Amino acid sequence: MGINGHRRELSLVQKVQRKLRYYEQQVLAPVKYLAYATGQTKFVPPPDRMYIESTNICNLKCIMCPTGRGEVTRPKGFMDFDVFRQIVDEMAPYVKATTLHIWGEPLLHKRIVDMVEYCSAKGLRSEISTNATLLTEEKSRQLLEAGLSAIYLSLDGMRPETYESVRVNADFERTNQNIRRFIEIKSTDHYDTYVNLQIIQMQQTVDEIDEFVETWSIPGVDRIHVKAFDSWAGQVDEINELRAYEPDLPAKRYPCPNLWYHVHIYWDGSISMCDRDFNSRFPLGSVIDEDGKVRVMKNWNGPRMQELRRRHIENDLDDVFPCNHCTEWAWWKPTFSTSQGNRPVEEGDAQRDPNRLQKSSTLVVYDRPSTARHTDAK
Ligand code: SF4
């Protein structure tokens, strides 16, 4: 009942459901790891995390984003709510969390609040990353009340000129106000939504990161996320040029964990290897079968996924675009008991030493202990 000034509480059933899932996932972790480590391609257990593209339409033209730069040439659209519902129905028992964005601004989806609410009803953690330009007070309250588990609020810069040169078409003051109001409502009404305040590490922002961290280390912000620069598999020269630091790659390439741990579903139901294949250059089929029914698991282990996993195992990637251009596969590697969202491994409260940032690229400065398992964001 947050709208009236009270915190939304999970029902007893939801609490039990979440606990049981947590233990199930703990038990499944070694099974997943074995599938990855032994090079299983066909009978891969359900993914840890699900990335759902509510829409690939955006209201901004950010300079580090293929959508903003007009590089995403797939048809534009919004996910049908019934398709979304079927995806969640099938996958909620298995995945730890779902993000409701891949390419595009999720708040543009008319039913984004319903999506969050549906996940909550199914005991599935939901997360969104937003540019916060459309995060009105009303929308903030609706999202909090719907039980959003985590939000990434993107604010790249401390100065209007920095922010507005990166997030083209956004207004610095307006976005700041929206973010501060969201945090205020969350804190005042004691909502449990985990708030990540995010700045992307790039040439334009790197000199403002210290000040950003200091300024935003405030109650209500659970984590300041200095996000690694994602080159989106190095496909766009103008984006590559924005890098502040060169990536640090292991000597030997290993199969990309995303293909065993994360499912990415675009707005039209098509499956992608990860968000870096933003134009589906290596099509992997669709979760929507010929009879119109959604079947995620069947297609997660479909023939094209199997082939792609095999190509990774054999390191036969010369003609697998964009994996052959990618450096982000090295961001993380699973272990027997742990996996990671689609972002680099963190080094806790790392110092803001440029060399260290280059390696860890993700800086957790102010971290509220939480059961919320955050994934990543754009
Ligand atoms: S290698 Fe890169 S592009 Fe390919 S699936 Fe992994 S992260 Fe995505």
Summary tags:
single chain, 9-stranded mixed beta sheet, 9 strands, 12 helices, alpha/beta, 378 residues, binds iron/sulfur cluster
Write the layout of secondary structure elements.
Elements: H1 12-37, E1 49-52, H2 81-91, E2 97-99, H3 112-121, E3 125-130, H4 137-146, E4 150-154, H5 160-166, H6 172-188, E5 194-200, H7 209-216, E6 223-227, H8 237-240, H9 258-261, E7 262-265, E8 271-272, H10 296-300, H11 303-313, H12 354-360, E9 363-364
Bound molecules: iron/sulfur cluster.
Describe this structure in words.
By secondary structure, the protein is of the alpha/beta class. The chain is 32% helix and 10% strand. The protein has a 9-stranded mixed beta sheet with strand order 8-7-1-2-3-4-5-6-9. Helix 7 (209-216) links the parallel strand 5 (194-200) and strand 6 (223-227). The structure holds iron/sulfur cluster. Iron/sulfur cluster binds next to helix 9.
Supply Rg.
20 Å
Number of helices: 12
Distance between the termini: 30 Å
Count the strands?
9
Average pLDDT works out at 89
Cofactors, ions and other ligands in the entry: iron/sulfur cluster
Overall shape: it is globular
Largest sheet: 9 strands, mixed
Helix-strand sequence: HEHEHEHEHHEHEHHEEHHHE
Proportion in β-strands: 5-15%
